[in-house]
Amino acid sequence: xxxxxxxxxxxxxxxxxxxxxxxxxxxxxxxxxxxxxxxxxxxxxxxxxxxxxxxxxxxxxxxxxxxxxxxxxxx
Length: 75
Prior knowledge:
Mean pLDDT: 75
Distance between the termini: 89 Å
Protein backbone atom coordinates (compact mmCIF):
# COMPACT_ATOMS: atom_id res chain seq x y z
CA UNK A 1 0.00 0.00 0.00
CA UNK A 2 2.85 2.36 0.79
CA UNK A 3 4.43 1.66 -2.60
CA UNK A 4 1.21 2.62 -4.36
CA UNK A 5 0.96 5.86 -2.38
CA UNK A 6 4.58 6.68 -3.19
CA UNK A 7 4.03 5.97 -6.88
CA UNK A 8 0.86 8.07 -6.95
CA UNK A 9 2.55 10.96 -5.19
CA UNK A 10 5.52 10.78 -7.58
CA UNK A 11 3.18 10.66 -10.55
CA UNK A 12 1.24 13.66 -9.25
CA UNK A 13 4.47 15.56 -8.65
CA UNK A 14 5.62 14.67 -12.17
CA UNK A 15 2.37 15.99 -13.66
CA UNK A 16 2.63 19.23 -11.69
CA UNK A 17 6.24 19.75 -12.76
CA UNK A 18 5.44 19.04 -16.40
CA UNK A 19 2.48 21.45 -16.35
CA UNK A 20 4.55 24.23 -14.83
CA UNK A 21 7.60 23.72 -17.04
CA UNK A 22 5.69 23.12 -20.27
CA UNK A 23 2.33 24.90 -19.96
CA UNK A 24 1.76 24.80 -23.71
CA UNK A 25 1.57 20.99 -23.66
CA UNK A 26 -1.62 21.10 -21.60
CA UNK A 27 -3.33 23.38 -24.13
CA UNK A 28 -1.90 21.79 -27.28
CA UNK A 29 -5.24 20.38 -28.46
CA UNK A 30 -7.03 23.69 -27.95
CA UNK A 31 -4.32 25.59 -29.81
CA UNK A 32 -4.48 23.17 -32.75
CA UNK A 33 -8.29 23.33 -32.86
CA UNK A 34 -8.31 27.13 -32.70
CA UNK A 35 -5.68 27.36 -35.44
CA UNK A 36 -7.65 24.99 -37.67
CA UNK A 37 -10.94 26.83 -37.09
CA UNK A 38 -9.35 30.19 -37.90
CA UNK A 39 -8.32 29.02 -41.37
CA UNK A 40 -10.53 30.49 -44.10
CA UNK A 41 -10.85 27.07 -45.76
CA UNK A 42 -12.43 25.56 -42.67
CA UNK A 43 -15.66 27.49 -43.18
CA UNK A 44 -17.83 26.54 -46.14
CA UNK A 45 -18.91 29.88 -47.57
CA UNK A 46 -21.23 30.73 -50.43
CA UNK A 47 -18.42 30.92 -52.99
CA UNK A 48 -17.14 27.47 -52.04
CA UNK A 49 -20.65 26.00 -52.31
CA UNK A 50 -21.15 27.61 -55.73
CA UNK A 51 -17.79 26.29 -56.91
CA UNK A 52 -18.69 22.76 -55.82
CA UNK A 53 -22.05 22.98 -57.62
CA UNK A 54 -20.46 24.35 -60.82
CA UNK A 55 -17.79 21.65 -60.86
CA UNK A 56 -20.36 18.87 -60.36
CA UNK A 57 -22.62 20.30 -63.10
CA UNK A 58 -19.61 20.49 -65.42
CA UNK A 59 -18.72 16.85 -64.74
CA UNK A 60 -22.32 15.76 -65.39
CA UNK A 61 -22.36 17.72 -68.68
CA UNK A 62 -19.10 16.13 -69.80
CA UNK A 63 -20.41 12.64 -69.02
CA UNK A 64 -23.67 13.44 -70.82
CA UNK A 65 -21.73 14.63 -73.85
CA UNK A 66 -19.67 11.44 -73.90
CA UNK A 67 -22.85 9.34 -73.67
CA UNK A 68 -24.47 11.26 -76.53
CA UNK A 69 -21.33 10.93 -78.62
CA UNK A 70 -21.27 7.14 -78.06
CA UNK A 71 -24.97 6.89 -78.98
CA UNK A 72 -24.48 8.87 -82.20
CA UNK A 73 -21.49 6.75 -83.11
CA UNK A 74 -23.62 3.56 -83.01
CA UNK A 75 -26.38 5.00 -85.23
